[in-house]
Write a structure and sequence with these properties.
heterodimer, A: alpha/beta, Na+/H+ antiporter like fold, 27 helices, 10 strands, elongated, disordered C terminus, B: alpha+beta, 1 helix, 24% helix, rod-shaped
Chain lengths: 696, 123
């Protein structure tokens, strides 16, 4: 096959494999990087090469790997630049004794155990072309690495970022990051120091000059980029080009000095300005192409060099198990013991140890350097790659065991808070800040009692969290308009903001914990589906134990003319009940109850209950109307055409054609009307009749 | 006393950081006397010139061999190298000059090792 065609094919296969396995790992609560690492190994000689040797040989002929390697190295440069960019000096300062001791111990303990392990591995799997010191120091450095990005992601996804544990762990990981790369730079210098004292002196002196220049010349100079960014209000292509050129120059300098190009990339990222907007935007520019296109190439290239077949017989496999055990004992054990000694609880210390034990991609980067240098042999490379995979894979289940998500959730949402004990509660999940005040107005209008407790909840996506701001208090930015409206009206609203990957599950769990009998949430036009009761909204309705009201805001409050179409059933009854509350709290509200009955049918039990509800209302403000009609939607539409209403309160009853359907041409005709809507679904239908009876 | 926690931290730090450092130094001393297998990894240029080079990837005594498009496995025992590359058996030993001398299949083998293809610094 033509070289370029083959290259495109390789890219496609690698990206598909990496995305597919990454997504599969996400589904089982594993970091995406685990799937991408596995994809690389599966594309290598150990799986594809074994399963379909001819296909593998045709897809990855040795002569074609040069381009892949060059691109994967470029990806690594960008990745290391991003790692440096994310490294904030404030993560390294002022974290107290716990972080200082734990971070240093989490490096030195695995380093020591790794070097002890070298006493066993060196005579078996190395050769006399490598000095013991070089081998032992490399093993120590490789054992002590932590995957900062994976760790930060796990902390974010589990809502631990803003806890004490999260702050200490992030600080330790940041210190580890810097330390591991410095240590590795030293090891590389020692291993490469084969050219005698002159070459070593050149590298050492050159490195010192380079680091000094980066800190005292380059850093102040690049600080001007931040000023330029602020003046322009955005990141221009010129700034991106300058950043790229600086990255390449720094990488070139460290490679020329005899350390490694990746150190230059990392240090360039580390000295870049750390203003949040600048870092965020620069990261966004580089991140997608690096993570989606270039890094999978690195995983594939690493997989091509990972030959599991080298582990032939029980001996090497047992040695591999030993490597994994030592890695876990050093990193997890060392970090946990130090954290405990620093004053963290055993649970927190154990969780910190588990998190620090995550090796991820950083380990593969270091191992690739070691293999390129010849300081580790192919079989040690295989063992260490497996160690990286196992330690990354074990993080999530171990963390779940030590620090269960249920416990974290309990701590996050304050289960057992004495303040939650009294009175009924209403939960108001807010997605868009601008929708907050209207949702609050609706929640106040339909709350079970005038003095109901109100909880405003904003669920942030993990992508919205910034590990660099781990210390910041939970920001209620998205709830601010709602809170301001509440303060203006003298209402007390308790805000809650947390990271959520499963919106519906978390919202209904908060509702359960807070004893909320009503959830009031807004509806925003989805990207793909037009359905109102679809996606997360429907999921909340399905899961909630209490009533759920979905507000589609088209006319702002106050809602004076309210229509309640009614055919029967628990959801329509719930809608009538809520509409009754609106009317009871605002004397200016007039209510029209449009009861649609099919010709020849008698009123159902729920219709009788509705009649009881209507009878209890102020007759001057309620207009009950009984209409015969086969098609309730048409009757309601006619009423809306005839009379202008501000709000329609309607049950999530099948007759109103609001439930999600796969096919349906007349679907949601009511929802398309230019009037605000409140769609109500009653929780626990079995308990409806007694409630209504009591209300009546 | 205000110095109490600081003193405790200092003691902890010395124990938890200082002790492993000492162990590390001890390990480096102990390991200096270890004898790993001889290095045979890299490219071996076969005499007479013009024949395909023999590529060896070494993991201790385990050798991965590539000769042209043919691959195989080998083993290093002391100075003796044995293995199989496709249909060809490799029997050779490392002589005093660091050359591989023996047979590869039916043919005599004399190979000199080219500098290892390790990544070097740029200067």
């Amino acid at each position: 096959m033509h070289g370029l065609l083959l290259f495109f094919l390789q890219l496609g296969v690698i990206i598909v494999a990496a995305r597919a396995l990454g997504a599969a790992c996400k589904r089982i609560q594993q970091p995406r990087v685990v799937g991408e690492m596995i994809a690389g190994i599966l594309l290598g000689p150990s799986f594809l090469g074994w399963l379909a040797p001819d296909l593998w040989a045709a897809l990855f002929p040795p002569a074609s790997l040069g381009a892949l390697q060059a691109l994967s190295q470029t990806g690594l440069l960008l990745f290391m630049f991003l790692i440096g960019l994310e490294l904030s000096p404030k993560l390294l300062r002022g974290r107290g004794h716990a972080a200082l001791l734990t971070s240093h111990a989490s490096i030195i303990a695995p380093f020591m155990l790794g070097s002890i392990l070298a006493l066993y591995l060196y005579p078996r799997y190395s050769d006399d072309g490598v000095s013991f010191a070089g081998f032992a120091l490399f093993m120590g450095a490789a054992m002590s690495v932590t995957a900062f990005p994976v760790l930060a992601r796990i902390l974010t996804e589990r809502n631990l970022l803003r806890t004490k544990l999260g702050a200490v762990t992030i600080a330790c990981a940041a210190v580890d990051d810097v330390s591991a790369w410095c240590l590795l730079a030293g090891v590389v210098v020692i291993v490469r120091a084969t050219g005698g004292g002159e070459a070593l002196a050149f590298t050492l002196v050159g490195s010192a000059v380079y680091v000094a220049a980066m800190l005292w010349l380059v850093r102040p100079a690049v600080a001007r980029l931040e000023t330029y960014y602020h003046n322009r209000g955005r990141l221009t292509q010129d700034v991106v080009a300058v950043a790229l050129l600086l990255l390449l120059a720094s990488a070139w300098a460290t490679e020329w000095l005899g350390i490694h190009a990746l150190f230059g990339a990392f240090l360039m990222g580390a000295v870049m300005p750390k203003e949040h907007g600048f870092v965020h935007e620069l990261t966004q520019r580089f991140e997608d192409v690096t993570l989606v296109l270039l890094l999978p190439l690195f995983f594939a290239f690493t997989g091509l060099r990972t030959q599991l077949g080298l582990l032939e017989g029980a001996g090497p496999w047992l040695d591999c198990a030993l490597v994994i055990a030592v890695a876990v004992a050093g990193k997890l054990g060392g970090s946990a013991v130090a954290a405990r000694a620093s004053g963290l609880s055993w649970r927190e210390a154990g969780a910190l140890g588990v998190l620090m034990n995550t090796r991820g991609l950083m380990e593969l980067v270091i191992l690739s350097i070691g293999l390129d240098l010849g300081v580790i042999s192919p079989i040690v490379f295989v063992m260490m790659v497996l160690m990286a995979l196992v330690t990354t894979f074990m993080t999530t289940p171990l963390l779940e065991w030590i620090y269960p998500a249920a416990l974290i959730r309990k701590e996050t949402i304050g289960e057992g808070d004495p303040a939650d004990a009294d009175g009924p509660a209403v939960l108001i999940p807010v997605a868009l800040p601008s929708s907050g005040p209207e949702l609050l107005a609706m929640a106040q209008a339909i709350a079970p009692a005038a003095g109901s407790r109100l909880y405003a909840v904003h669920c942030r996506r993990p992508d919205d969290e910034d590990p660099l701001d781990a210390d910041a208090a939970p920001a209620h930015d998205a709830l601010r308009p709602l809170l301001e409206a509440a303060a203006a009206g003298g209402a007390v609203v308790r805000p809650m903001t947390f990271v959520s990957q499963r919106f519906a599950e978390d919202v209904t769990e908060v509702a359960r914990v807070k004893g909320a009998r009503l959830i009031v949430l807004g509806w925003h036009k989805p990207v793909i589906s037009q359905s109102i009761l679809g996606g997360a909204v429907y999921e909340v309705m399905r899961r909630a134990r209490g009533d759920v009201a979905v507000y589609v805001g088209r006319r702002p409050p106050p809602w004076r003319r309210v229509l309640v179409p009614f055919t029967g059933g628990p959801h329509d009854l719930a809608a009538l009940e809520l509409a009754g509350r609106i009317a009871s709290r605002d004397p200016a509200v007039s209510l029209t109850v449009l009861q649609v009955v099919a010709p020849g049918r008698t009123a159902s039990e729920s219709a009788q209950a509705a009649a009881g509800l209507v009878a209890a209302m102020d007759p001057a403000r309620v207009t009950p109307r009984l209409v015969d009609g086969e098609a309730p939607v048409d009757v309601a539409l006619e009423e809306l055409q005839r009379t202008p209403y501000d709000l329609v309160v309607i049950g999530a009853t099948e007759a109103w054609e609001l439930e999600p359907r796969l096919l349906g041409a007349t679907h949601e005709r009511l929802a398309a009307q230019p009037v605000s809507m409140l769609i109500v679904r009653r929780g626990e239908p079995a308990a409806v009749a007694p409630k209504v009876a009591a209300a009546a | 006393m205000r110095d109490g926690p600081a003193m405790r931290f200092a003691v902890l730090y010395v124990v938890m950081i200082g002790t492993p450092l000492l162990v590390l130094l001890l390990v480096l001393r102990l390991g200096a006397d270890l004898q790993p297998p001889r290095a045979v990894g890299g490219t071996w240029e076969l005499a007479p010139p013009g024949r395909a080079a023999l590529e060896v990837a070494q993991s201790g005594p385990v050798l991965e061999l590539r000769w042209g498009e043919t691959t195989g496995r080998g083993r290093l025992e002391g100075d003796e190298v044995s293995g199989q590359v496709g249909p060809w058996a490799l029997r050779a030993r490392l002589d005093d000059q660091g050359r591989l001398v023996g047979t590869l299949g039916e043919a005599e083998l004399v190979a000199a090792r080219a500098p290892a293809r390790r990544r070097e610094g740029g200067h």
